[in-house]
Amino acid sequence: MQISNDTAALNYVDYFTKQLPIDLANMAALRDELATRQGALSAAENAVADRAKAAEELAAARISAASTQAAAQQALDDAKSSLAAANAKEKELAAREKEVNADLTSRQSEVAKRETSADSKAAALASQQAALDIRSASLEAQEAALQTRVKAFQDKVAAISA
């Protein structure tokens, strides 16, 4: 607005009929452009916010992945050590089994020898018992014959003394 009078007076009718619609159209275009720019600015702000949120989520995911990877590595190490312990135990058990089988085989052969020895001793004892039985029967027969002779002698002595 001009307060000095060095310019011509404003003709409001001309302004309202000719210039105001042009100014209103320009203002509407400026408003639309401003809205577009504001939308673009909002979109850019949203994109920046989304990038910051994505960066935070990425950092959290990396931390989670690192902890998961560490846990998986620990589980893998535990599994490897368990496998190594199981393999060592399996080897130890296989060695023990071989020792036990060898010991069992030697014991079985020793038992077989003892059984053979016991069988031969039993056969020898049986033959000795048979021989003793024969000698016992012979001794009993001889004792019976002796008793008969003693009785006959006693009878003779009694007949002579009587």
Task: Give structural notes.
By secondary structure, the chain is mostly helical. It has one domain (8-123). It contains 1 helix and no strands. It has one helix at 12-161. The chain starts with 11 loop residues before the first helix and ends with a helix. The model has no long low-confidence stretch (mean pLDDT 90).
Features:
0% strand; 162 residues; rod-shaped; 1 helix
Tertiary shape:
rod-shaped
Taken in chain order, the helices and strands follow as H
Beta-strand segment tally: 0
Task: Report how far apart the termini are.
Answer: 199 Å
Question: Cα-atom Rg, whole angstroms?
Answer: 65 Å
- Helical fraction: over 70%
Unreliable runs: none
How many domain units? 1
Give the biggest sheet: none
**What is the strand content?**
under 5%
Compute the number of helices: 1
User: Class by helix and strand content?
Assistant: mainly alpha
Average predicted confidence as pLDDT: 90
Topology, please?
Blueprint: H1 12-161
Summarize the structure.
With 162 residues, the protein is an all-alpha fold.
